[in-house]
Design goal:
The chain has one domain. Helix 3 packs parallel to helix 13. It starts with a helix and ends with a helix. By secondary structure, the chain is an all-alpha fold. 77% of the residues lie in helices and 0% in strands.
Length: 286
């Protein structure tokens, strides 16, 4: 295992976890898209020998990720059923374990079937139709403004509970990173880079700190995330291949990945609020 690359993946995953949880509490519509933000996908391109193979797995798994998060948001109390009296930190841990197990089943099946199913153009169209149908029928009223306590970075993370959540994330991430490093197969590197650990940890945290109806607002835009991830990985994989053909070096590849991240984040923060306001007006009949 390349220790510097592994440390970078951990650091970036941790940052994503913290930011998704915090921004998800501040703006539900942006938070929904960020659940599948392609942060770890870019790191995978830097570590894998076959960027196109890595991307081929990601195309399929990210569709599963978006649908999986929507399922969790809609059936939170049943996946798994937990007593109301259970301590909230215990709820977070149990939900994470169960959700990761459920995710792994679906993602593994798709990774095995990658060669037969992974066609980015068709998958993008399929996701576009699914997102359009869900937004047309399931879009909710604008969520209430978050309270100052709910969006306080200090109260969310700089506490004993916040430290415990971060420690759990680090432990799980290191375990999964170790499993992924045992094989050079691009299929499984892509599988590992599509693990939605930041989103799962963030959703589990929000599930005990946010009102149930408020949490459902994240689902308004969660299916839009794959529409960003698919072209992101298609373009990035080809950019990395071109850089390697030109022997541009690791620095050029890292700069390219960071530039792709910046462009993706700019798209999310510039377009999602505008789209949400437009859809809210249409829903209200204005």
């Amino acid at each position: 295992m390349d220790i510097p690359i592994a440390a970078t993946r951990l650091l970036l995953g941790l940052v994503a976890f913290v930011l998704i949880g915090w921004l998800g509490a501040r703006d539900k519509r942006i938070g929904g898209v960020l659940f599948t933000f392609p942060l770890l996908n870019g790191i995978a391109m830097l570590t894998g020998a076959d960027p196109k193979g890595i991307a081929a797995t990601i195309y399929l798994v990210v569709l599963w990720n978006g649908g999986f998060f929507l399922l969790l948001m809609e059936w939170l109390e049943l996946l798994p059923p937990l007593p109301r009296s259970l301590h909230r930190e215990a709820k977070i841990i149990i939900r994470i374990v169960v959700w990761m197990a459920l995710w792994a089943v679906g993602a593994t099946v798709l990774a095995v079937l990658r060669d037969a199913l992974s066609f980015p153009g068709w998958l993008f169209i399929l996701q576009l139709l699914a997102a359009g149908l869900w937004i047309a029928r399931g879009w909710r009223a604008p969520p209430p403004l978050a309270s100052p306590a709910a969006i306080s970075f200090r109260l969310m993370w700089l506490t004993r509970s916040g430290t415990l959540r971060l420690a759990c994330f680090v432990a799980a991430f290191l375990l999964l990173l170790g499993i992924a490093s045992t094989t050079p197969d691009a299929r499984w590197i892509g599988w590992a880079s599509a693990i939605p650990l930041p989103g799962i940890f963030a959703l589990a945290t929000l599930s005990v700190t946010q009102a149930r109806d408020d949490l459902k607002s994240l689902g308004d835009t969660v299916l839009l995330g794959p529409l960003l991830v698919i072209p992101f990985n298609w373009l990035l994989s080809r950019a990395i291949i071109d850089l390697r053909l030109e022997a541009a070096g690791a620095t050029a590849e890292i700069v390219t990945v960071v530039a792709f991240w910046a462009a993706a984040a700019a798209i999310v923060f510039a377009l999602v609020p505008r789209f949400a306001r437009w859809r809210d007006r249409r829903r209200a009949g204005g």
